[in-house]
Structure formats: C-alpha cells, structure tokens
Specification:
heterodimer, A: about 700 residues, alpha+beta, Rossmann fold, four-stranded parallel beta sheet, 18 helices, elongated, B: about 375 residues, alpha/beta, Purple Acid Phosphatase, chain A, domain 2, 2 domains, seven-stranded mixed beta sheet
C-alpha cells in the first residue's frame, strides 16, 4: 500500500491542503504550527475514522479535529480525501465527518463509487492488511518503543539446544508480542494479583480456607475467603439460632407434658376429698369382712380338730387289748436262761460208738435231754449229748460228762420248760417273740389311750367353753359365712374410681402427690429459666430471617468463586499462549534487525552468542536496556521498529511515519537514524515530518514537501 | 348454611430487609388484608379463619404490627378464628400471643384457638364445631391430627378441622419437619372439611372467583399476598360454604384474589444481541400485573454490542423503572469484543490481541481479560 495524495479543505487547524507523496521517502518540512502533524492525523483519520460520528465515543476526535472559530463557536464541517495505491490499483477515498450524517465515498480501481462506509471499511481492510491497532501502535507511533519492549529485546534467551538464530528470533518475537499491546509480564502479574486478591488463602479445589475449613486467616484474606468467612459466620449463627429454636421447641414440649402431668395430679387431688369418706367406709367394711373370714377359717380348723378328737375317742373306746403282765415276761426270761444253760450242759458230750447187739433183745440208744432214740441198728455212730443206752431189761447205761448231775439238770430243764409253756399257753403265744410283741402292743395302746384322754380333757374343755358344743360351732361358721356374703355385697356396691384404688394411706398419698407437683414446679422453673436463656440467646433473631440474609451473601460468594475461576481459566489460556509465541514466526525479522543494527552502529553493535545465551553486544560488551544511553536505546528501538514493519509488510508495502522524531539524538545518532530510514525506504514508504532543515540534507533521495 | 372465609400465611411482621421498597411492600400486604376483610363482610361470611402464620415469628413482632392486624380483623362482622402456625406457634407463653391476647382484650369477635379441644358454636339453626390442630413448635416431624383421630364427631353438626403444616405433594418439606400431613390422612379424619395453612400456593387451584364449585373438603388458601420470589401465586383466599342438600352435607368454595403485590424472578437470555427486546419479551410473557405492584428480579446473560452495553442502564430504566422495585443481576451480560475491536485497539501481532482472540468463545472471560489489559496499559 502506498499513499499517493492527501487533500483537505478543512481539518482541524488546516485549510486547503494538498500533498502528493512518492513511493519511497517523503519529508514534510515546515515550521512549527504549520500543520505538518495535522496532515499525519488526517491520513490516520482518513484510514480509520468513520465519517459518521458518535458524540460520545468520538469525543476526542471531535474535540481535536473540528476547528474552533475565533468567537468560540464550533464549526461542524471537516473533510479530506486520500488517494491510495495498492497492487497498482488506485483508490480514491473522501470523507466528510459530521455528527451522525457524515459522508464517505470511495472510487475503486474500476471506477465504482462506494458510499456505504461498512463496505468502504471492508475494502480498506484488504488494502491495509492489518488492523488499526498495528497502524496506531507500530506504523504511526514514535520510534521510542516502550521500555518493556526494549527490555525484551535485550533480554537474554537461554539457548538450550536450539541455535542462535532461533533464539534471536524468539527474543524478537517476544518483543513484537509486547509491541502495540501490553507488557506480558505486567498482564501476568495483574492476573496473579487478581487471583490473589480474590483467592488469597482460599483453596478453590476444596472450596475451603487453605489449611482446612476451620483455619482462620487474619492477614491476606482474599475476597472469596472474606465472603466465605462471612457466609460461614452466618451459617454458624443459623445453626446456633436453629439449635436455640429447636431447644425452645423441645423445652416447650417438655413444659407442656409437665403441665399435663401436673393437671392430672391436681385433678386427682381435688377428687380425693370426696372419695376419702367412701374409701374409709369401704376400708371398715373390708376389715369386717376380713375378720369374718378369718373367724370362719379358724372356726373351721377348731371344728375339724374337735370332731377328730371325738372320733379318735370313739374309736379307742371300741378297741380292746389283752393285758400282758410284766412279771410273766420276766419269768419266761429267767426260765429261758436256765433252759439254755442246761441244754448246753446236756449236749456238751461228743462220743463215737460201735454197736454190735449180740442179743435178741432190743437195744435202745436215746438222747437223755430230748428222749429221742438216736440209734436203732448195729453199726458205727457219732453221738452228741448225754446218752442213755438201754438193752431191754438187761442193762441201762447212761453216758454223761464227769461230775455232771444229769438227772438234776434234766429235771431242772423240764421244770423250766413247763413253766415257760404254761405262760405261753396263758397268752396264747407260740414263743417269746410273740409274747414280747403282745406286751409292746399292750403298752402302746395304753399310752395312746392316755394321750387321747389327756388331749380330750385339755381341748374339748376349751372348745366347750368357747363354742358350747359342736353344733354351736357349726352354726357360728354358717353365721360368719352369711356375714361375709353380706359385707362382700356392701363392698362391691361402693364405687371408687380406678385411679384411687390401691391407696392405703390417704395422707401419705396426698403428700406423695403434692411432692410430685412440687417436683414438677421446680422442673418447670428450671425449664422456664432455660427458655429464658435461649430466648435471650436468640435476642430477637430467627432462622428464617437469617436464611434470607444468607441468600445474597451466598450469591456474592458464588459470584466471587465464578470470577476466580474465570481468572484461573484466563491464566491458563495466557500460559498456553505464552508457550506458542514463537510458533507463528515472522521469518526474516532477525536478519533485518541485525542488518539495521549494523547500519546504525557501523557494525559495532551485533548479536552474539554468550556461553549459553544470546546477547546484544557492543564490541563484545553485553548491552542491557538499563545501561544504554537514551540515544542508543532510541536507535536500537528504531532498528527494531523498522525490522518489524518490514517483516509485517513482506512484499514491500510497508509504511512508516516519523513525526518530529530524533530530536533527542546527537548528530551521529541522527545521521545513523537517517541512514536507517533511507535503507528502510528502499522497500517501503516513509513519511518523515520535521521542522528541522538539517534533515533535508541528510536524506539523499527524498521527496521534500514544503508546508 | 354457614360461610367461612379462609386465609393464612400472612406473615405480618416480616421486615423485607432485602428490599429497597420494604415499607411499600409491607403496606401493600396490609392493603390486601383489608381487602379480604371487606370482601368477607360483603359476602356475609360467618367466620374469618386465619389458618396459621398470621405473624412471621413468635418473639420479634412489633406491637404496632399486632395492633394494626387487630384493627383490620375486628372490623369483620362475624367471628374471627386465629390459629397458631409454625412461624407463630403457641406452646404457652410466646411473646406474640401474649401481646395479641392483651390487645384483643375487650374485643369479643376474635378467638385465638390455643387449646386442642372441640370449639362449639351455633349459626342460626346450624351447629358447627371447630377442631384446632395448631402448631405448638416451630418444627415437628409429627402433625397434630392424631389428637382428633378417634374423636367421636357428632354427625349432626358441621365438623371443621383447622390445621397448619405441609401437605405431602403440595408443599416442599424435604426434611419432614413442618407437621407433614397427607391428603389421605385428612380425608380419613371424618370431618366435613379441613382448613389448612402453611403452603403458600392455593389448593385446590381450580376455584372460580364468581361461581362456587363443590369440593373434596381440603382447603389451603395460601398466602393472601405473595411473599417472595419462591411462591408464584397471585395471593388468594377462599370463601367456603357449608350447606345441606336434602340432609346431605355439601361443601362448596370459590376464591377471591386479594393479592396486590407480585414478585417475579425472570431469566433473560439475550437473543440476537437485542437487550431491549429480550427483556421486553420475557416481561410481556411473564408479568401479569400492574407494574406499580410488581417487585422484579431480572437475571440477564448474553452478549451485546458496545453501543447497547453503554446504554444498558438506560434500557433497564426504560423497561424496569416503572416497576415498584427491580433488581437486576447482569454480571453475565457482557459487552461484545469483536475481532475488529481487538484489531482496532491492539496491534494484531501483539500478545494481548491473541489472548483476547483466544478467549472469544468465552465472552465473560474475554471481557475480564480486556478490562485487565486496559488496566495494565493505563
């Protein structure tokens, strides 16, 4: 793109201006206030300022570009036209700026007239290649590039594995990235600052303060954490208030239950007076009943005993028992002892006999004691006891131990045996055992009889005294039964409410109930105190109002969190982008920059490779942005700017505007700068505005425009 | 025939602290209350039943509010029945009821039902009994219906149950802490009708304003005047008629719209970058009340052009300024940052231009980044 011509009848301070430009270097020369800079403003406005103006958004343009008349009134008419060449096509654009109704007109290469400003802007966009930002920030801006860009140029770049060229390119790309925008580090710092301001000491992952939900940070509390604490405080308060309310509910419930219990007891107590007499009456009746019942039971026992006695006595009367004399028992005993002794004497002889009866007389061998014949025939025999041998009429032999009077013992024995048998016969018993039994039986009978007689004497007297007779007793029992029945009926007729049943002691009962009431009263007092405590604690607060209060706070908190997340995402995008700055390279910028550096420093300033980094050096001395003189900074900045423009407009369509530049440069630097511009203008258009004649001599091949 | 006017959930004493126009909001709610009393008198109702939550809480209601409420209800020409709800529960000595009882001394047509018992009354030849199942606590997992479950109701009388609590399926009571009851439970009580409070939306919802219709006997009129954004109701009350049709008892009802104040919570997604039309459409579609009586909250999101963005407050004022109160939430409404704008303001070769371009699919973040860059550039 080349600017061929600019014209204006009226624009800011200029009137009736017409300037033709050449393709390469153009120098606009004029005195101060001659309107040189206004021409540059006009070119810019022709390209970027819509004809229809908005009073609000275009306030600065209106303020600066509309001429002020001498009487202070504003004139509302300014205009201009520009001729542009692009790829050998000529475009003529004219604009009349006015509030709302501005007019723009473009005649394109084919002679078409375009009046729609949007359409015109679309065509301009194609011609200009880049947006207004590039023109405003790079093309039309001063060669004094921002400090941060400058620092970026002098920034070291770690070589790593890549080569010097790549690194230099990388440095320059980062510098380009700051040009016409904002300092990347400053943006990063700002994002971090915002993240810190919002999220300081707050962990967005756990949505809690760093260090846990209970951690109370006092310093560096971010906005989110502040909102979190506020919300937390309110939620804690809500929990507290809800708890108080629940406690009040619970106490009220308890109180109510106690009240019901108290009322119930009081009802019982107030009913007790009327019931008391009835109760007493029933108690007496019950006592009587119990007495009758007891009497009946005892009388029945007495009757049983009495009848038993009578019965026993009658039975005994019927029984008979033979008397056995004790002296008979003793006689038997003495006789038996003699019998036993004599028997043993008479049987104490043991003999062996060999008998051979040679006669025809009968031999009789018998035991002396028993008289029993022991041997009938001849033969050998063992003989026991005193023995008598008698051969009929011939001989009689008695055999017995020496010194024993057999006859006497035999006689004594027989006598005693007779005595015993006599007594046995008397009592009709067979032996001593039977006799003893009979004696025992007799004795038992006698003692039983005595006992019955004794008891009879003892109890019956009593019973007779007490009841007169058995029949008398029986009728008393019947009477007691009747009495009980009667009392039972009377008792059952007395109605006592169930609640009072079982009371044995009314005074104790009343006392017990009163104590219960007292206990309830004191419990109630405690509850009332507790209620008061919780009401005081509530202090007019209620959970619903708190919930209402929490809503906007929660919104605020959520909004803060959302904002934090936005910043977090922006930071993420930022970092990704930062990694890819070199990926869209502006190839050739490094060569151009080195060329320009060489020109302005007579090749004393070069890019060099340090040990492991790339630096800009002057005669092997590393240069840094801070150690440079303002003049050197400006010339290096100029080299960079021109390299950028030339790279942006690769096909030579670049444009650079210099408006009263180099005023701070010394002569040498100025000369270098001019060399640089001349070099640049070989392939690009330059409009150099100055009020200093010296430049007219410095540029060897310039189109000088005198204003 | 007996006529009962039913309201509830009036929540007098609520401070509306989050609203700028709180005084007007409170006043308009009183105005609706007055409308109800006038209507009840015009309809010659025998009873004016307030089924709980007449007041907003138990311990923090200014006496002036209590007096004001009493001033209105004492003008009712029949009997006023006040039932404690969960917000203004009665357990024994709550401050609100102490104040209320003191203020109604000497007024013989206001009855605070604070005992669980049968309240008998006579209207002409008809006999009626009220059975109050009022709230005795702020929260309760059990309702109070069991008190009358095995009650031997006299069939010859009109038996009316009064209760306050959530009705399953009608009101949200996720935690079951608001005296929850079911319709089946109410239907099986054996009374002629149940007058319930708690749910702010009216039930049944099919009543007419002019002609009464026969009903199943469960009535929850809801709040007489909308209280907040949550319950979308125009504020109703019911007029219930108990009569006999050949000795068979009949329950009919109609509604009366007492509400003046409306709350609307609107969500606007800006279409075609037209903020004005987008808001207008949503308002036209949703707001069916006089603007002067509407409290509006508008949540707006979307992208609009710089021109519109700069004029948005003006647009809000034009569209919303006539409402009683409006609150707008437009943090997600952003000024569009077009590629042109980026190229105009920044060199497109610059990092910031690229950053803004990359964020173009997230307008909110793009805007934040833009502001941040501007802040950095000074």
């Amino acid at each position: 793109m080349k600017i061929k011509k600019i014209e204006s009848k009226q624009f800011a301070g200029i009137k009736g201006v017409s300037v033709d430009f050449k393709d390469k270097l153009n120098v606009i020369y004029g005195k101060n206030e001659s309107g040189k800079s206004t021409i540059i403003d006009l070119i810019y406005s022709m390209l970027f300022q819509n004809a229809s103006l908005d009073k609000r958004t275009d306030r600065d343009f209106i303020e600066n570009s509309f001429p002020h008349s001498s009487d202070g009134t504003e004139k509302n008419y300014i205009e201009g036209s520009i001729i542009i060449e692009n790829k050998n096509d000529i475009y003529t654009l004219s604009k009349e700026w006015a509030s709302k109704n501005g007019v723009a007109k473009m005649i394109d290469a084919n002679g078409n007239i375009i009046k729609d400003e949007n359409e015109i802007n679309e065509i301009l966009k194609t011609i200009l290649i880049y947006g207004e930002g590039v023109y405003r920030n790079i093309v039309f801006t001063s060669q004094k590039i921002p400090q941060n860009t400058l620092e970026s140029i002098f920034g070291e770049c770690k070589k790593g594995d890549s080569n010097v060229r790549e690194e230099l390119h990388s440095i320059l790309m980062q510098s380009v990235a700051t040009l016409g925008g904002a300092d990347i580090d400053a943006i990063e710092n700002k994002i971090k600052e915002k993240l810190k301001m919002l999220g300081d000491h707050f962990d967005i992952k756990t949505m809690a303060p760093e260090g846990g939900i209970n951690k109370k940070w006092k310093k560096e509390v971010g906005i989110i954490l502040k909102a979190y604490y506020r919300l937390n405080d309110l939620n804690t308060e809500l929990t507290e208030v809800t708890e108080y309310e629940d406690n009040i509910d619970a106490f009220n419930k308890q109180k109510k239950e106690l009240n019901e219990e108290k009322n119930e007891i009081q009802n019982i107590l107030s009913g007790i007076a009327s019931i008391e007499t009835t109760f007493e009456k029933r108690k007496i009746l019950q006592g009587n009943y119990n007495y009758q019942k007891e009497f009946e039971e005892n009388a029945k026992i007495d009757l049983n005993t009495w009848e038993g006695f009578e019965n026993d006595k009658a039975q005994l009367e019927k029984q008979k028992c033979e008397e056995v004399l004790k002296e008979d028992l003793q006689i038997v005993e003495t006789a038996n002892s003699i019998i036993s002794k004599n028997e043993s004497i008479l049987s104490a002889l043991t003999l062996s006999a060999k008998i051979d009866n040679k006669s025809d007389k009968k031999l009789k061998v018998s035991n002396i004691d028993s008289g029993e014949e022991i041997i009938e025939n001849n033969g050998e025999y063992d003989i026991k006891g005193c023995t008598e041998i008698d051969l009929d009429g011939i001989i009689n032999i008695k055999l017995y131990p020496k010194d024993v009077d057999v006859d006497k013992f035999k006689n004594e024995l027989d006598k005693n045996r007779f005595k015993v048998n006599d007594i046995f016969k008397k009592y009709q018993v067979k032996n001593s055992v039977e006799l003893n039994d009979k004696f025992d039986k007799y004795n038992k009978f006698i003692s039983q009889k005595e006992s019955i007689d004794n008891n009879y004497e003892k109890f019956i007297r009593q019973y007779e005294e007490k009841y007169a007779s058995i029949n008398g007793l029986k009728s008393l029992i019947e009477k007691a039964k009747d009495e009980q029945e009667k009392l039972q009926k009377q008792i059952s007729e007395i109605k006592i409410p169930e609640v009072y049943e079982g009371i044995s002691d009314f005074d104790a009962y009343k006392k017990d109930k009163q104590e219960k009431i007292n206990k309830i009263n004191s419990e109630e007092e405690i509850i009332n105190d507790s209620l008061q405590v919780y009401r005081d604690k509530l202090a007019g607060r209620d959970s619903d109002s708190l919930k209402e209060q929490i809503i906007p706070l929660k919104d605020e908190y959520d909004n803060n969190v959302a904002e934090y997340k936005h910043y977090e995402h922006i930071y993420q995008v930022f970092n990704q982008l930062k990694q890819t700055i070199n990926i869209s390279p502006m190839s050739g910028i490094d060569n151009l920059f080195e060329d320009y550096l060489g020109i302005i420093s007579n090749h004393s300033i070069t890019t060099k490779t340090g040990n492991d980094s790339v630096i800009i050096a002057s005669n092997d001395n590393k240069l840094t942005a801070n150690t440079l003189s303002e003049g050197t900074k400006e010339t290096i900045g100029l080299a960079f700017k021109l390299a950028v423009i030339e790279t942006l407009f690769k096909n030579g369509g670049g444009l650079a505007i210099f408006d009263d530049s180099f005023t701070d440069l010394d002569e040498d630097r100025r000369n270098e700068a001019c060399k640089l511009i001349e070099k640049f203008s070989q392939n690009n258009q330059v409009i150099f505005v100055t009020c200093d004649k010296v430049y007219l001599g410095l540029f060897t091949n310039a189109n000088v425009i005198n204003i | 025939m007996i006529k009962i006017f039913l309201t509830g959930d009036n929540h007098f004493g609520r401070k509306f602290a989050n609203y700028k126009m709180k005084d007007i909001i409170i006043e308009k709610r009183y105005e609706s209350f007055k409308k109800m009393v006038d209507k009840a008198n015009e309809e010659k109702c025998n009873y004016f039943v307030i089924a709980g939550d007449l007041f907003d809480n138990t311990n923090n209601i200014p006496t002036a509010d209590v007096k004001k409420v009493i001033e209105y209800i004492k003008k009712f020409e029949g009997e006023v029945i006040v039932l404690p709800g969960n917000h203004d529960f009665y357990s024994e000595d709550e401050k609100i009821w102490q104040t209320f009882s003191k203020q109604i001394e000497g007024i013989d047509n206001i009855l605070l039902m604070k005992e669980y018992k049968e309240y008998k009354d006579t209207v002409g030849d008809e006999e009626i009994s009220f059975f109050p199942a009022f709230c005795d606590a702020k929260h309760s997992s059990e309702n109070k219906l069991s008190l009358y479950k095995d009650y031997d109701f006299n069939e010859n009388r009109y038996n009316v149950l009064l209760a306050h609590g959530a009705i399953e399926g009608l009101s949200a009571d996720m935690e079951g802490q608001y005296f929850m009851m079911t319709k089946n439970e109410l239907n099986s009580m054996g009374v002629d009708c149940c007058l319930i409070g708690h749910t702010h939306i009216p039930y049944p919802s099919n009543l007419n304003e002019d002609k009464p219709i026969e009903c199943d006997g469960i009535f929850n009129a809801g709040t007489h005047s909308q209280l907040d954004w949550h319950n979308n109701t125009d504020g109703e009350c019911f007029i219930i008629t108990l009569s006999r049709d050949e000795n068979k008892k009949k329950v009919e009802a109609k509604k009366y719209c007492s509400g003046i104040l409306r709350f609307f919570d609107l969500y606007v997604d800006v279409m075609n970058k037209d903020l004005n039309l987008s808001i207008k459409n949503i308002i036209d579609k949703n707001v069916i009340a006089d603007k002067k009586n509407v409290v509006l909250r508008v949540n707006i999101k979307g992208t609009i052009s710089t021109d519109v963005y700069e004029k948005k407050e003006e647009i809000y004022q034009n569209l919303l300024g006539d409402f009683l109160e409006y609150d707008k939430e437009d943090k997600d409404l952003v000024e569009e940052i077009s590629l042109e704008k980026i190229k105009k303001e920044f060199a497109e070769t610059s990092f910031v231009a690229k950053l803004l371009e990359t964020l173009s699919d997230r307008p909110v973040e793009q805007r934040i980044a833009y502001n941040l860059i501007k802040e950095v550039m000074g």
